[in-house]
Amino acid sequence: MKLYGSITSPYVRRIRFLCLELGIPFQLVDTMTESGQKELREKNPLWKVPYLETDDVKIWDSHTITDYILETKGNCKFRPKVGDHFYREANLLTAIDQALDNAILLFYLNKEGIKPDAAPYLTKNALRISSILEYIKRELSGNHFFSDGKVGLSEIALYSTLDWMRFRSVLPILEEEIFVNFLNFHGPNKSWMETAPK
Known about the structure:
By secondary structure, the protein is α+β, with helices and mostly antiparallel strands.
């Protein structure tokens, strides 16, 4: 299995985490190199990561890659995707992804010297992140979203998102005790440590 992406991408990290947790061998093609980027663009019209190739299967969406892995390799100790919690978890994933996408946008614009107050759209994006994080804080029950105490896709998404925001210093995540506790609780997991951005 070939996984195209960068070490720092939070979306790629989710896949790397799942593969390590489930014992699935994979070859990471580093798309931060010229050759990796060239290969990605030849194979994936979106030019985005993660991109997965295995056997005759080619997938360029992180959620679809996750579904493929869980359906073909089993969900092991993770909370299954199906069940009474499905729609709530889907909402959580959508919210977390939206916060992450907006944070990534702010990060890259900031690198170009463009601040959130440069345009109403950017200001709205920054406010949307705050709104989502407030929602996430209300939805968390301790260090999980559901009373089963299991890690599911929403916890995986939140950890990779918060840790990326902390790594990139995009938002003052460490000022929020609930997020600090969440990161400290899940962080010692060997697979999270092995996939940490550098």
